[in-house]
Design a protein that fits this description.
Domain Bacterial SCP orthologue: 32-125
Strand order of the largest sheet: 2-1-3-4
Strand content: 5-15%
Order of helices and strands: HHHEEEHHE
Organism: Mycolicibacter kumamotonensis
Distance between the termini: 42 Å
CATH topology: Nonspecific Lipid-transfer Protein, Chain A
InterPro entries: SCP_3
Shape: globular
Protein name: Bacterial SCP orthologue domain-containing protein
CATH architecture: 2-Layer Sandwich
Number of strands: 4
Length: 131
């Protein structure tokens, strides 16, 4: 299988910036599915590039799942370290508009396994700041 091409950081940032109004204000109409999917996939793949490895699986259904963070590799069955969230919450985390602790407390981010919380060390991926 051919290696996936590297994520262009400018492309990832542009995809997130295109959704900035919606990320800052959830009353703004949601972006179309293709825009949302692109931003989610690009940021998740950016995380996988910045934190290479396969000890933690990050799932953002229905768009993408990536493995990241160095350590023991998982190959079969349910991974021991899983991070799961919805697309909007992921983008808020990736953009620095939501902290992992707050997302977990609100039930928007599910962490399972001893190493899942390590993704916080790699976030945010694209800083949007306050609007």
């Amino acid at each position: 299988m051919a290696a996936r091409p590297r994520v262009d950081p400018v492309q990832a940032r542009t995809a997130v910036l295109a959704l900035a109004a919606w990320l800052h204000d959830d009353t703004v109409p949601a972006p179309d599915r293709a825009e949302l999917a692109a931003a989610v996939r690009l940021t998740a793949r950016t995380l996988a590039e910045l934190a290479p490895g396969a000890s933690v699986e990050v799932r953002i259904p229905p768009f993408v799942a990536v493995q990241c963070i160095a350590g023991p590799r998982h190959t079969r069955g349910t991974p021991p370290n899983v991070v799961e969230t919805d697309p909007r919450s992921w983008l808020l985390l990736a953009a620095g508009l939501l902290e992992t602790s707050a997302a977990t407390a609100a039930g928007k981010l599910r962490l399972s396994g001893a190493r899942a919380a390590e993704i916080a060390e790699w976030l945010p991926l694209v800083k949007l700041g306050a609007n």
